[in-house]
Each structure stands twice: as C-alpha cells, then as structure tokens.
Amino acid sequence: MKNITILVPQQSVLVSIDNPRCLFAGVNDFLQEAGRPPLFNIQLVGLSKEVKLHKGSFSVHTDKLLKEVQKTDLVIIPALDGDLETALELNREFIPWIIKQYKAGAELASLCIGAFLLASTGLLNGRQCSTHWKYAAPFRDMFPEVELVDDRIITEEQGLYSSGGANSYWNLLLYLVEKYTDREMAILASKVYAIEIERKTQSPFIMFNGQKAHEDDGVRSAQEFIEKNVSEKISVEELAERFAIGRRSFEKRFKKATHNTPVEYIQRVKIEAAKRSLETSRKNVNEVMYDVGYFDTKAFRTVFKKITGLSPVDYRNKYNKGVAVC
Fold it and tell me: Taking the mean position of all CA atoms in its chain, how far away is CA 209?
C-alpha cells in the first residue's frame, strides 16, 4: 500500500487538491474492478482540521494534522494562490516536515506553482524544476539556485517531481500512476479522465510578455526598442552601440536582467508577434515571417518550433479557426 499525502496549504488552489485525490481514488477503483487490491492510501493533511480556501468560499476538512503523519511515500504539494510571498509565509511550517519526509525516503511532487513551496525547502537547489510559465520570472528571482525549465510539463530528479502550469499537473499525476502501477492502468486513467497522455511541453501555451521587472534602465530601453521594431533585423552590436554600452557588458547586463540573451529576447519577441498574427489573421506563413523580420524560411520555422513546440502551420491550424487546414 502506497501512502499518498496531499497537503492542504493555506491560500492554495482547491482543484489541485481534489483532483489528485479523485485520480488516485479512481485508480483504486479500477484496480478493484480488475480483481486487484487497491494500492493507494490517500490522506488530506494540513496545519488545521479545517482550511478555508479562495477567500472563504470553500473549506477543506483534512484527514490528519501535519504533526500526526510520521511517514509517507508520496507528498503532493498543490498550487498556491494569491500573493506568493504571503502564501509561503503562511505555510512555512510545512517546510521542515517536507524535508524530513524526503530524507526518510518519501517522494515529493509539486503541482503548478506549488513549485514555490517545494523550492523553499532548498531540496531543488542545483536541480531542474517546472512551474507555470507565467510565474517563471518571479520563480527565477526567488530561487536562483534552481534550474527552471518552464517549457516542460514534467521534471523528475531523485524523487523530486514538478509539473508545468494549470491543468498540466494531470500529466504528472498520470506519470506517477504509471510508475506505481503499470502502463495499462495509466492509459485507462487517461481515457476515463479524458487526459491527453504523453504531453511533454507547455511551450504552445506560453505567452511572452517581456521581462521588465528589473532596475536596469539601459536594458529596459533596449527591450522597448526591440518590441517597437519587431519587423526589423536587429543585431546585438546595433543595440549595444545605440544605447552606448560595450557589447560584452550589454550582453551580461541583459542576461542578468531578463534571464535571456539579447538574441533569445529578439527571437521571442518576433515569435510572439508571429503567433498573434497566425492566431488572428488570414496571412500565410511567409507573409507572417516577413512581417516579423525573417527572410529565411528554414531559420524562421526552426526558431518558431524551438520556442512553441509546433511548426508555424501546425500552430495556425491549432489556434485559428478562420483558416483552412493545410
């Protein structure tokens, strides 16, 4: 029997607590229907017997208090809600318990921005982690020692798991079901719960809005210039010269402020503009390519797929109902 502890932090997202409970309980039912014993002992665990969520709209009644759980096999850390610094402060009592369980052999899985609570333990330092793409910048600022891979749906390192944003945690839950049972059971769960199995990236969903929450005015001016001149071919040398910064210093400052190199930032701005055009216009791929300053079809397609995980045609067909599939 696998003991699964689903934490119920204050200021957390209800569905990321209840959906794991439902899935693992459902797998227990599937196993029994197949003549096999149930595998999972599922418990909701919190700092109090009742935890009010979503500004008091919902209450979760926990099965046990944190201090009552001495040993478990898997800890699920649900997504946090609201101001993250406040949420982490409210739930700091979970941190030593999570560390203790991991050192005793338990595996830990964070869902969406539950990664912030997992990262607060220090256990992710030097390791990879995913979270919701929208929270990538604050995560990197708060946890610079963690290698954030915000395009990934699932990460796994030495019993530490994380998932990408929002509903992508279903894919991590399926991954854990397969690990603890078998492939057949994971496929059955994916069909019953209508989950697309084997989804590995959240790249198609990422919306790039720039990273301007920093204090480097020179870099911010360069970012604004890039965004206003998306159709132009812009070089790093031109940017450094335009803003009177030595190239090496410019590249170093840009990377520090935005977590992207200047070339990466230019690419992401151009591809984000291309995505919006493919979503809303009837222009063909070449027209969109020219609009965002690319003239090499192969280079454009390569960069587009690297950033979004899809080809330009596949992206347009996925998100634009006004164009014919081709």
Answer: 16
CA distances from 276 to 133, 142, 265, 298 (A): 18, 30, 17, 20
Q: Is 46 left (phi over 0), alpha (psi -120 to 50) or beta?
A: beta
Per-residue pLDDT tens digits of the chain, which is 326 residues long: 999 999 999 999 999 999 999 999 999 999 999 999 999 999 999 999 999 999 999 999 999 999 999 999 999 999 999 999 999 999 999 999 999 999 999 999 999 999 999 999 999 999 999 999 889 889 999 999 999 987 788 899 999 999 988 788 999 999 999 999 998 999 999 999 988 876 666 666 666 777 787 889 999 999 999 999 999 999 999 999 999 999 999 999 999 998 889 999 999 999 999 998 998 888 999 999 999 999 999 999 999 999 888 899 999 988 887 665 44
**Furthest C-alpha separation in the chain:** 73
Count Cβ atoms below 10 Å from residue 241 Cβ, excluding itself.
13
Alpha carbon distances (Å) from 126 to 115, 148, 208: 14, 10, 26
DSSP string, 272-292: HHHHHHHHH----HHHHHHHT
* Distance, CA of 165 to CA of 150 (rounded, Å): 9
Using only C-alpha atoms, the chain has a radius of gyration, in whole angstroms, of: 22
Q: Distance between CA atoms of 265 and 260, rounded to whole angstroms?
A: 6
Instruction: Tell if the pTM clears 0.90, that is, is over it.
Output: no
Burial class (CB in 10 A: 0-12, 13-18, 19+), 133: buried
Helix (H) or strand (E) holding 76: strand 74-77
Cβ–Cβ under 8 Å, residues 16 and 79: yes
What domains, with CATH codes, occur in the chain?
2-205 (3.40.50.880), 217-319 (1.10.10.60)
